[in-house]
Design brief:
- There is one protein chain.
- By secondary structure, the protein is of the alpha+beta class.
- The protein has a single domain, classed as GAF domain (Beta-Lactamase).
- The chain contains 7 helices and 6 strands, in the order ααβββαβααββαα.
- A 6-stranded antiparallel sheet has the order 3-2-1-6-5-4.
- Helix 1 runs antiparallel to helix 2 and helix 2 packs antiparallel against helix 7.
- The C terminus is likely disordered.
Length: about 180
């Protein structure tokens, strides 16, 4: 097992549980698969919107306000299909993400989106970027082992309220670096 169930249980029961579990998730993903950049988003499917709640690069991908979801291949796969999406080339990313040029300019050419699924709905995603060819079938399988931890983190975050909750450290205000929808 990729994660320690006893450690997860202790983090869930402890203070600032959402951030603690999310930090454990990021630590494990970094150790097990490595990657270049992580963001995370919550989803309000009743309103067809998402909001970034974590970013390792607030200049490129700020946390902040809700944006409308588009129904496309990503939506069909991750949101409606409740399964991961991964690619190994910038060309594959360009087929799905409008900001593929920004991704390329940041030096990334592969991605993986890990959905957090609860009660049959996607409530959040952990979004990983890496170098070309990074998200091989073996790495994808290792990321998927962390899905229960991701789901626990997002469920804990939802207890704080979808409108304002964030995985960012307490000293990073929601909206830090936010310059509009994107």
């Amino acid at each position: 097992m990729a994660y320690d169930p006893a450690k997860l249980a202790a983090l869930v029961a402890g203070p600032d549980a959402a951030r603690a579990v999310f930090a454990y998730l990021i630590e494990g993903l970094n150790r097990d698969i490595g990657k270049g950049l992580t963001t995370a988003s919550v989803y309000d499917l009743d309103e067809m919107r998402s909001r970034r709640v974590f970013s390792e690069d607030l200049d490129a991908y700020p946390a902040g306000n809700f944006k409308l979801l588009e129904k496309n291949r990503y939506y069909d796969t991750v949101i409606a299909g409740s399964t991961h999406f991964s690619s190994t080339t910038i060309e594959e990313i360009a087929e799905v993400f409008f900001d593929w040029e920004k991704i390329r300019d940041l030096g990334f050419e592969s991605n993986m989106n890990l959905p957090a699924v609860a009660s049959g709905r996607v409530i959040g995603t952990v979004n990983l970027l890496g170098p070309k060819g990074h998200f091989t079938p073996d790495r994808v399988a290792r990321v998927l082992q962390w899905q229960p931890v991701a789901t626990a983190a997002f469920l804990l975050l939802f207890l704080q309220g979808i409108e304002t909750a964030t995985f960012l450290p307490g000293d990073a205000p929601l909206g830090a670096g936010y310059e509009g929808i994107g």
